[in-house]
Amino acid sequence: MSAPPTKSVPESRRRVRRLLRILVASVLGTFLLGFFPEAFEFLGTLSLGWASYLMRVVPRIRFNAEIAFGSLIALSLATFGLHRMMRWWRGARGTAEKWRAGWTLKITAMVLLLFATSIVATGIVHQVGWLFKAEHLVYNAGKGLLTDVLSNVKQVSLALRMYADDHEDVFPRTLDELFPKYTTSRRIFFGTTERDEPPERTIYFPGFKATDPPDTIVLAAPHSPSGTRIIGQINGAAMMIGESEFQTRMQRQFGSNPPPLAARAMQSR
Question: Is the four-CA dihedral 139, 142, 148, 152 of positive or negative sign?
Fold first, then answer.
């Protein structure tokens, strides 16, 4: 007895359905793009933002052969020790099949991936916490300008640390000495926290060393919009603090007779 014939959808009808799906998706996408452009910008940044980040960061990465060689030796010794231990454990159980080297490599790769994942998760939590603390990034009308200045001060702070590592913990006399070895753009030396104002040079306080107190202020934005001041510290951190706190720290750092640059920073509000 033969099975009853199955009803098949004609090829023409399937093509029509496929065209209707494409048409509906196109209309819906156009509607969302017209009324919610921020959503597409967010999705684009989320999916392709890593590419622009790599283009900015990779040219500034410096390869350290000593650290790489030491890490390779440590990883090799750890993998070899793990393999020997697992072979001994396999033999102690009386299993006929010996422990394979491929199994050891898979375990090592999993541990490395877990380690990398934990670093990424820690970085995400740190940045989210930093954004929640930086209230002015959310509430200030000039939040885009503040973000740019804060980013520039952070990059300069890290460049100062790299310079000090290569010069016996001594910071440069001027920021221009960081170019081009420690930064590929002089643009990060400038910024503005006021709308419709030309960029002004970040104030730099020379004469310090990397061995000085880590919270020593070495960089400061030239102005303090809405009662805040963007600063860079010896430890490479960049942050926004209240203007009153900035004045107090500057007086404690330089005393009652500050140098001209410090006096200028304290008078600029």
Answer: negative
Extract the tokens encoding 132: 């929640």
- Answer positive or negative: Cα dihedral of 114, 158, 196, 133: positive
Neighbours of 263 (CB within 10 A): 13
Distances (CA, A) of 111 to 79, 81, 102, 103: 11, 15, 14, 13
What is the spatial distance between Cα 200 and Cα 268, in angstroms, rounded to a whole number? 12
Mean pLDDT by 10 residues, the chain (269 residues): 54 82 80 63 70 77 86 92 88 79 91 91 80 53 71 92 93 93 89 72 92 93 83 92 91 85 75
- What backbone phi and psi angles, to 5 degrees, belong to 210? -65, -15
Start-to-end CA distance of the chain, whole Å, equals 95
Instruction: For residue 191, give the 3-state DSSP assignment.
Output: strand
By three-state DSSP, how is residue 239 classified? strand
pTM exceeds 0.85 for this model: no
In degrees to the nearest 10, what's the CA dihedral of 227, 233, 238, 244?
A: -10
